[in-house]
Amino acid sequence: MALPLPPSDIPLPDGMPAWVMAFISQAIRENVTLTENGATQAVVARLALLLRLVESARVYLDTEVTVEEAAALLHRHPETIRRAVRSGAIPDERSTRRGHHRIRRRDLNRLAAPHSRSYDPQADAQDIARRRRPP
């Protein structure tokens, strides 16, 4: 029995949460092991489930929400969301007649994700010293 597509070729949408990506990666590794052991029926069934999971995640991430819904999801004030849209931190999808902001869920991940820059004490000390110098 031939597989419908190689397990490594599952199309993953952008903006997926890290835990979903980890789950899918682990499932793909397990599918490779099952394939090596000749359990192709199990691999085909698991692959079908993974594809349904990925498609459901894509639909969820492409859903548009209002500013108020986005604020509730991120536990932020609605004006914080509006500022992020105005500054271009998250794209604006104005699909309503009155021009209200509509935001895709996948774009909210950009605002919710913590900044990955690590703290550099040496650079911080240099910045403080630079600010204290008289002009």
Account of the protein in words:
The protein has 135 residues and is mainly alpha-helical. It has two domains: 56 residues, no CATH class; 48 residues. Helix content is 59%, strand content 4%. A two-stranded antiparallel sheet has the order 1-2. The protein starts with 17 loop residues before the first helix and ends with a helix.
Shape: flat
Number of strand segments: 2
Largest sheet: 2 strands, antiparallel
Q: H/E element string?
A: HHEHHEHH
Topology:
Blueprint: H1 18-36, H2 40-62, E1 64-66, H3 67-74, H4 78-87, E2 102-104, H5 105-112, H6 121-132
Antiparallel strand pairs: 1-2
Helix pairs in contact: 1-2, 3-4
Q: What are the salient characteristics of this protein?
A:
135 residues; mainly alpha; two-stranded antiparallel ribbon; 6 helices
Brief sketch in words of this structure:
Helix content is 59%, strand content 4%. The chain folds into two domains: 7-62, no CATH class; 64-111. With 135 residues, the protein is mainly α.
